[in-house]
């Protein structure tokens, strides 16, 4: 089977989310090769869909109250039942993210968000659903360099609470996406006008 590589079409990017028009630069890629890349400077929030929700409030909440969880290449709805059963999901009794009333432990301040999102999280924020809000960061932009001709990369897998658009917010990068789900109608709905037929 022959591999077909299709160049990136800059006209498919949502211009409302850009700080400046897309330009082209020659950059050195992680493999050491030089390539022509699109320089894309984005705003810190999406302009085509609402962000969140990420964390349900109670273990009785349905899937509309939370985002998604990625594990072993599978996407799981973060509803109350998912949070309630995380100890079984991970076969580890230390996974309990809710109190005796079924209320889920959620970060609710910028300070808590930053502390709980730290990879070396302290015991006071273990087993919290981390909900970092866009209002915590203002005027954040991020610059991406995307090769005009795509290059193969090694995929990275992780488990995290993302919203239904496969995105979340943090204090250093703003709202950003982690995964695309081919064929997912709910995901494609996050990018109205981003695809052309």
Tell me the strand percentage band: 15-25%
Which sequence of SSEs, written as H and E, runs from N to C? EEEEHHHEEEEH
Strand order of the largest sheet: 1-2-5
Determine the structural class based on helices, strands and strand pairing: alpha+beta
Helix residue percentage: 10-25%
Given the C-alpha coordinates, what overall shape results?
elongated
Mean pLDDT: 83
Task: Note the total helix count.
Answer: 4
How many E strands? 8
Low-confidence stretches at least 5 residues in length (pLDDT < 50)? 181-197
Rg, Cα atoms, Å: 19 Å
Task: Describe what is shown at a glance.
The protein has helices spanning 80-84, 86-89, 110-116, 185-188; strands at residues 23-28, 34-42, 68-71, 74-77, 142-147, 161-162, 167-170, 174-177. By secondary structure, it is α+β, with helices and mostly antiparallel strands.
């Amino acid at each position: 089977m022959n591999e077909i590589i299709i160049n990136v079409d800059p006209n498919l990017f949502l211009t409302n989310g850009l700080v400046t028009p897309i330009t082209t630069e020659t950059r050195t890629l992680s493999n050491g090769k030089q390539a022509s890349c699109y320089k894309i400077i984005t705003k810190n929030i999406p302009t085509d869909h609402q962000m969140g929700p990420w964390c349900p409030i109670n273990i009785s909440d349905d899937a509309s109250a939370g985002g998604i969880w990625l594990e072993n290449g599978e996407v799981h709805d973060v509803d109350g039942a998912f949070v309630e059963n995380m100890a079984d999901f991970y076969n580890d009794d230390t996974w309990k993210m809710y109190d005796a009333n079924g209320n889920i432990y959620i970060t609710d301040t910028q300070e808590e968000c930053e502390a709980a999102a730290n990879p070396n999280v302290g015991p006071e924020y273990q087993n919290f659903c981390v909900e970092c809000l866009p209002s915590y960061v203002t005027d954040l932009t991020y610059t991406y360099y995307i090769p005009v001709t795509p290059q193969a990369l090694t995929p990275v897998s992780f488990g995290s609470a993302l919203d239904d658009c496969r995105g979340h917010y943090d204090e250093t990068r703003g709202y950003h996406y982690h995964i695309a789900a081919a064929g997912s109608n709910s995901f494609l709905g996050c990018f109205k006008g981003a695809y052309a037929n």
